[in-house]
């Protein structure tokens, strides 16, 4: 006798299970009818199997997951969750931050945990993984790596792909000590301030070293925020009101500040602006104070990589034996160290660099140029006062 064909499928009511034979797949299909979604499409999650018994078992599991608000799948891996978060969870973030997170995910999270199913990953496994990573990563990098996993699982949890976020239950171990920041000695600072004068990188270093501006605050600085042509007893100053962050805001609210420039910085920036104006006139272009102070020749903003490369070239020319061991942020730590060695109170230094802990609460609005903090300029004028034996 010919084999009996499986009985045709029966239409299931809302919330009911149905099992039918799919000849194109040569398998039984099980489905749960859940009505219609907000988009008007019918919601019918499905499972498949070689026998009805296998399908019924999978349907029972599927129903339990649906009732618990999750849906497991062989496709719901840690790698898929991380990639989904990188795609959706970093919207609006600064490009440099996105690059760092993608690098850490590609080098540390996905290679180690990527194949694991999100619903099978345990807190113990995450703990062991972080403990191993603590032997090779600095503590700040370790924090970011855990953050990537925690936020990826949180997104998967919101999407109903996992019941709980196991990364939330794991304490962060202590990572390796990061490379300590260095500071220029007074002699090194003098050497740097008298190397390659008349170039943009020299002016950039002068502003960072003598005023304490962050590199992320210098690169988007425009001439409209540099006040050199002051009158009367008012000293030249700059408004540190912008940064390269996504929306242009400074690192913290206290970072938005106005700072008086020491005499040397004001002179250097005056000459730097004059050179830019001459170059602008030679090209037949109109001058505008909206131009960037440290722009490329085409007026575009310099990247952090470009600034670092030029700084290291300057350091080499100034006689530093290992210029590649220095970074741009260490101009700022040198500013702090030089002021501290000079006896400037830490509370004053905190205000100058825009730190929040010891600063008096003050809000600087866009059109408000007070209070302009003068202590740093006065101290730097004293530290780098003209020396009869030194060429100015």
Summarize the structure.
The protein is of the alpha+beta class. It has helices spanning 52-68, 78-88, 95-113, 123-133, 139-158, 186-193, 200-211, 215-218, 263-282, 304-317, 329-341, 346-353, 375-383; strands spanning 17-22, 27-32, 46-49, 226-227, 237-240, 257-260, 372-373.
Notes on the protein architecture:
The chain is an alpha+beta fold and 392 residues long. It folds into three domains: 17-68; 78-169, Tyrosine recombinase, N-terminal domain (DNA polymerase, domain 1, Orthogonal Bundle), CATH 1.10.150.130; 186-383, hpI Integrase, Chain A (Orthogonal Bundle), CATH 1.10.443.10. 42% of the residues lie in helices and 7% in strands. It contains 13 helices and seven strands. The protein has helices at 52-68, 78-88, 95-113, 123-133, 139-158, 186-193, 200-211, 215-218, 263-282, 304-317, 329-341, 346-353, 375-383; strands at residues 17-22, 27-32, 46-49, 226-227, 237-240, 257-260, 372-373. The strands form two sheets. A four-stranded mixed sheet has the order 4-5-6-7, with helices on one face. The protein has a three-stranded antiparallel sheet with strand order 1-2-3, with helices on one face. Mean pLDDT is 79; it is low at 244-254 and 355-372.
């Amino acid at each position: 006798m010919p084999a009996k064909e499986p009985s045709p499928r029966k239409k299931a009511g809302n919330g009911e299970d149905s099992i039918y034979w799919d000849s194109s797949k040569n398998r039984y299909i099980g489905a749960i009818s859940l009505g219609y979604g907000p988009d008007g499409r019918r919601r019918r999650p499905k499972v498949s199997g070689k026998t009805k018994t296998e399908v019924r078992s999978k349907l029972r599991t599927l129903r339990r997951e649906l009732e618990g608000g999750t849906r497991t799948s062989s496709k719901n891996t840690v790698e898929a969750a991380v990639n989904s978060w990188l795609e959706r969870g970093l919207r609006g973030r600064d490009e440099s931050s996105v690059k760092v997170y993608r690098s850490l995910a590609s080098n540390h999270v996905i290679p180690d945990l990527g194949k694991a199913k999100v619903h099978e990953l345990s807190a113990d496994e995450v703990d062991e993984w972080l403990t191993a990573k603590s032997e090779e990563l600095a503590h700040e990098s370790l924090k970011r790596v855990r953050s990537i996993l925690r936020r990826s699982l949180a997104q998967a949890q919101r999407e109903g792909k996992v019941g709980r976020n196991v990364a939330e239950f794991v304490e962060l171990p202590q990572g390796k000590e990061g490379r300590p920041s260095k500071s220029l000695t007074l002699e090194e600072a003098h050497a740097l301030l008298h190397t390659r004068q008349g170039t943009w990188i020299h002016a950039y270093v002068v502003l960072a070293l003598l005023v304490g501006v962050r590199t992320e605050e210098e690169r988007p600085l425009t001439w409209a925020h540099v006040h050199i042509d002051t009158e009367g007893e008012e000293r030249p100053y700059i408004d540190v009101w912008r940064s390269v962050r996504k929306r242009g805001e400074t690192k913290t609210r206290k970072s938005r500040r106005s700072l008086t420039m020491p005499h040397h910085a004001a002179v250097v920036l005056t000459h730097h602006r004059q050179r830019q104006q001459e170059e602008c006139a030679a090209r037949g272009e109109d001058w505008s104070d909206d131009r960037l102070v440290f722009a490329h020749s085409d007026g575009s903003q310099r990247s952090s990589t470009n600034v670092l490369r030029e700084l290291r070239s300057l350091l080499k020319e100034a006689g530093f034996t290992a210029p590649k061991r220095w970074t741009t942020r260490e101009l700022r730590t040198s500013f702090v160290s030089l002021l501290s060695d000079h006896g400037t109170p830490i509370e004053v230094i905190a205000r100058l660099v825009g730190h929040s802990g010891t600063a008096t609460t003050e809000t600087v609005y866009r059109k408000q140029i007070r209070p302009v903090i003068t202590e740093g300029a006065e101290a730097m004028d004293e530290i780098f006062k003209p020396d009869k034996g030194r060429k100015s």
